[in-house]
């Protein structure tokens, strides 16, 4: 399995979705542990395993813990006022041509960083 997972920001519509709705993780789900997938909502039956939230360390100096919402395939929390992917996307100033990059970090955490359009991959 790759040490990084990448989500391209291709269009202005992607920018809107990522900053106003959330970042869909469908294409990179296999990058995260299966146990990080939680129930869709609080009224849904629990998952058939213990859900283990992920720690996401951002390149903006703050981090958040989240599971991945079953069916929607996004991180929680979903509010842009709370530390999470939508807040990170807004604060990073996403533009078409950028790439969101997730990398495995020490201790089981994950890092997220932004590569601006046309940037070479960083190690």
Please specify the SSE layout and strand pairing.
Layout: E1 4-8, H1 12-20, E2 37-38, E3 54-58, E4 63-66, E5 68-69, H2 85-92, E6 99-104, E7 110-115
Parallel strand pairs: 2-5, 3-7
Antiparallel strand pairs: 1-6, 3-4, 6-7
Helix pairs in contact: 1-2
Please trace the helix and strand order, writing H or E for each element: EHEEEEHEE
Structural class: alpha/beta
What's the arrangement of strands in the largest beta sheet? 1-6-7-3-4
Task: Characterize the largest beta sheet: strand count, sense, and whether it forms a barrel.
Answer: 5 strands, mixed
| Count of beta strands | 7
Q: Point out poorly predicted stretches.
A: 119-123
Helix content: 10-25%
CATH second-level architecture: Beta Barrel
The overall average pLDDT, rounded, is: 90
Proportion of strand residues: 15-25%
The Rg value, from CA coordinates, equals 14 Å
In the CATH scheme, the class would be: Mainly Beta
How would you describe the shape? globular
By CATH, the topology is: At1g16640 B3 domain
Fourth-tier CATH superfamily name: DNA-binding pseudobarrel domain
For the record, the count of structural domains works out to 1
- Discrete helix count: 2
Q: State the distance separating the first and last CA atoms.
A: 16 Å
């Amino acid at each position: 399995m790759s040490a990084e997972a990448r989500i391209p920001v291709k269009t202005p519509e992607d920018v809107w979705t990522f900053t106003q709705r959330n970042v869909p993780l469908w294409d990179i789900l296999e990058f995260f542990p299966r146990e990080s997938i939680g129930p869709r909502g609080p009224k849904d039956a629990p998952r058939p395993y213990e859900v283990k939230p992920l720690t996401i360390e951002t390149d903006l100096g703050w981090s958040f813990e989240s599971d991945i919402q079953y069916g929607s395939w996004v991180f929680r929390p979903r509010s842009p006022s709370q530390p999470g992917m939508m807040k990170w996307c807004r604060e990073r100033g996403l533009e078409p041509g950028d790439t969101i990059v997730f990398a495995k970090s020490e201790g089981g955490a994950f890092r997220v960083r932004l590569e601006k359009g046309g940037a070479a991959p960083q190690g």
